[in-house]
Amino acid sequence: MKQKKKYNDDFKKTIVELYHTGSSVSALSSEYGVSEVTIYKWIKALTPISEETGSLTPKDIAAIQKENLRMKQEIEILKKAMAIFAKK
Fold it and tell me: A GO term (biological process) for this protein (predicted)?
């Protein structure tokens, strides 16, 4: 059974930066022993969407959306609690 390698975020960011400075995915794959598919996934996840408005990556947006959903759920719970206490 093939064991899945774990790479830390700094390593992933370094590979993506090397890609953006001109290294090809195939060269990075050969040099660092990471599959091309994996590198393409990192590029997609860690490349900023718009440099002008800041630098949000798809990973950042997903984290923001998750936090937003959690906050909406908490607000709904608080609204229900307020309704219960308002009746007393």
Answer: DNA transposition
Positive or negative: CA dihedral 75, 80, 83, 85: negative
Architecture of domain 9-87: Orthogonal Bundle (1.10)
For the record, the structure tokens of 43 come out as 């590029």
Q: Tokens 């996934």 appear where?
A: 41
Is the separation of the CB atoms in 12 and 42 below 8 Å? yes
Please, are residues 88 and 79 in contact by the beta-carbon 8 Å criterion?
no
- Render pLDDT for 14-72 as a digit per residue (tens, 0 to 9): 999 999 999 999 999 999 999 999 999 999 888 877 666 667 778 888 899 999 999 99
